[in-house]
Amino acid sequence: MSSTAIRTPAARAARPGRPRQSAWIHRRDRRGLWFVIPFLVAFLLFMIAPLGYAIYTSLYTSRIIGGTVFSGAANYTTTFQSGEFWSGTVRVIIYAAIQIPVMLAIAFFFATIFDLGVAKWGRLFRTIFFIPFAVPAVVGAVMWAFLLEPQFGPFVHAANAVGFNNVDFFSTNLMLPSIIVIVIWEWTGYNMVILYTALKSVPRDVVEAAILDDTPLWKIIVRVKLPLVRPAIVLLVFLNLIGALQLFTEPLILQYFEPSAISVNYTPVLYIYNTGIAGAQYNLAAAAAVVLGLVIVVISVGSLAFRRSRGGVS
Amino acid sequence: MSSAATVKSHGQNAPAPGESPSGRGRWLRGGGGRRRRAARDNLPEDVIPIEMYGLKRGTTTVLTTVCVLFALFTLAPIAWIVINSTKTQANIFETFGFWFARPFALFHNFALLGQNVDGYGTYIQWLGNTALYAVLGGGGATALAAFAGYGFARFSFRGSRALFYLVITALLVPISAITLPLYLTYAKVHLINSIWGMILPSMVSPVGVYLMRVYVEVSVPRELIDAARLDGASELRIFFRLALPLMVPGLMTVLLLSIVGVWNNYFLPLIIFSQNRLYPLTVGIGLWAQRAQNSGNAELFPLVVIGGLVTIIPLIALFLVLQRYWRSGLLLGSIAN
User: Which domain does B195 fall in, by range?
Assistant: First the structure.
């Protein structure tokens, strides 16, 4: 598109052939549709159609006697009034409010170190930090469950050794922090790689100019580099938020190890899973899935709009 | 979008100034370039010497130590799973987690992966299933994204903008909000316990389409396509012979992300498969972990450990081999817009 201006003279020169030309454009354009159609078909069948069907299902109620009847917004009323759904939602919001800033701070710290080149073996460390991204959440959660296990887990022994006796990482109070540690382990490297690439594209002369002005290092990082990588940070917040609100695999696996600390409605997705699959209340679960989808869209779009509106740099 | 109006000969095929390999475009390209390689390898020529920031040499030692500590945190679970894959069930619980113990049971544990222990399913079969789902799902997602990304980037048909925005909007839809609806739909159309119920939705990757569109914009010059058209090449031939080779680095990134996505997927296969011969690794290992804890099948613990190890090895190997694709700026280029 940027080259349109350059081409315009050529287009003008070719004016005599215009009618034929526009027919050619038109035909070419329709051919473009053929490239897009395979994806669109799959997209309609496996994304739009199920969503539509879920909304449809959510408007009905199955009864043992009387079969399936139209019940309008009844399932939505139940979901909205359900303490089970909202307690899980509040929990994942608290979880996101802690996990995302902590993880991004760690990721930005290391990305800055590697960008400045102030630590040795930067390339090796970047590879190591990225490895957990390749570990499925199920396996990651299983490994951490063994490590944190209250009876024989090595981390409990370590805690005892440094003076914290009877630490139970799976207790009701420490379960959420444990999950936060696991997720930070899984995703910090990925976030760090993206921030590192963003920092690397900050023009060198900008930094050199700041150095020549005797700007202290922390000011270069906070006032020069941070604003320039702001778009990357905003999008990471956004992506991590969508992921955090869907928290499911880690608590489900930890529930296998410590059933008492994780309720069936610990997170909204666990609630949907347990209501829809285990409880076979499909209509109610469909309504909850629709509400969760809306909650996530509202929060993520809202956070994006909020971040954009603050400060002129973007 | 009047680019089609160009009447250009081969001689004018140089990229237009706006599309020259500078700025972000340079990062998105797969090609080498001294500066780019220097940035990647942290060669001194590209890094401002730390003395210029007013830092002392000792800072390097301190910060390297911090990196070592975080590396230990990162590698601890991996080390644990490697060490404990060599242990018997009793030793997993009774000996120190971060050191080896006799007897050396690695090969015994490994052999168990070929057996149907306690009737919950065979690991080897799950590994085959996972590979099948990942290759077909990830490969399909990449192929569809390549076609669609190219279509959106290089054609402007009626409604193309609206359709593209629809795809972008789909990025907002959380996967888990779509999973239960898929299950409900499958129950109607008999796709429960069908491998296609797993593979086909894995082929839908809005983020892949978005990445490919961005990639085509910077790496496949319009002039090249126009020239080929004037030579009478068909659109399909242009796509496969001209555009596709230029799209390879972008394709590799999308393929990598898609394969990892399918390999790690847990929620969808968990709810659509009730027969353990169809399980992927994630569901199988999850089931073992649950049974080992809650059903008294403690003999499954060594299987959970060795199974977990064998699950992560192919992916870690894949990432190490394909380093340049996740290190390149593509991920950034895609999200920083």
Answer: 112-335
What are the boundaries of each domain within chain A?
A: 4-58, 79-309
Tokens of A80: 């909205």
Q: Tell me the average pLDDT across A65-84.
A: 82
Q: What is the mean pLDDT of residues B46-57?
A: 73
Tell me how far CA of residue B276 lies from CA of A250, A259, B244, B283, B305, in angstroms.
21, 23, 39, 9, 19
Task: Mutate one of B180, B200, B213, B311 to test the A interface: name it (highest A CB count within 10 A).
Answer: B180
Between B182, B323, B335, which is nearest A50 by CB? B182
Domain count, chain B: 1
Does residue B21 sit within a domain?
Answer: no
Per DSSP, the three-state class of B248 is helix
Indicate if the pLDDT at residue A312 is higher than 90.
Answer: no
CATH number at residue B258: 1.10.3720.10
ipTM of the complex: 0.84
Chain B contacts of A10, Cβ < 8 Å? 5-8
Give pTM, 2 decimals: 0.83
Q: Which of residues 76-115 of A touch B (CB under 8 A)?
A: 106, 110, 113-114
Q: Would you tell me which residues 235-274 of chain B have a C-beta closer than 8 angstroms to some C-beta of chain A?
A: 235, 239, 260, 263-264, 266-267, 271
Looking at residue B21, its pLDDT comes to 38
Q: What residues in B contact A245, CB-CB < 8 Å? A: 174
CATH superfamily of A79-309: MetI-like (1.10.3720.10)
Are A194 and B308 a contacting pair at CB < 8 A?
no
- In angstroms, the CA A266 to CA A247 distance is 9
Evaluate whether A229 touches A198 at the Cβ level (below 8 Å). Answer: yes
- Tokens, residue B162: 């609206």
More confident residue, B87 or B17: B87
